[in-house]
Amino acid sequence: MPTLYLGSMPLEEIGWLRRGACRSSDPELFFPLAPTPSQEARAKAVCASCQVMEQCRSYALRAGESDGIWGGLTPEERRRTRFPEGWRRPAAPEAAAPEATAS
Ligand code: SF4
């Protein structure tokens, strides 16, 4: 059976989206051109009452969704969840350059 897509997302991966509380909300609330704290708070309030918030958040983190509010998290909050402070290993010290020899 061929995989069906919604945009670039496989439908079987996001079937839960049909039960999302945001289905009846203004898409601009979740994908604003210019996000504001007020808009984010209103979108998060919708997510807080959503029966599929865990699936939504898990999907967005796994898929690396870079835009919009998903599962009650902003893009920056998702980045911090995926890459918490200190997640990156310190770079290996660079090898010392050989000293110039006088001839
Ligand atoms: S958690 Fe928020 S963004 Fe995700 S489906 Fe529910 S209302 Fe929509």
TrEMBL record:
Pfam families: Whib. Signal peptide: none annotated. Its main location: cytoplasm. Residues 70-103 are annotated as: Disordered. The keyword Iron-sulfur applies. Upon Fe-S cluster removal intramolecular disulfide bonds are formed. Acts as a transcriptional regulator. Probably redox-responsive. The apo- but not holo-form probably binds DNA. Belongs to the WhiB family. This is Transcriptional regulator WhiB. The gene is whiB.
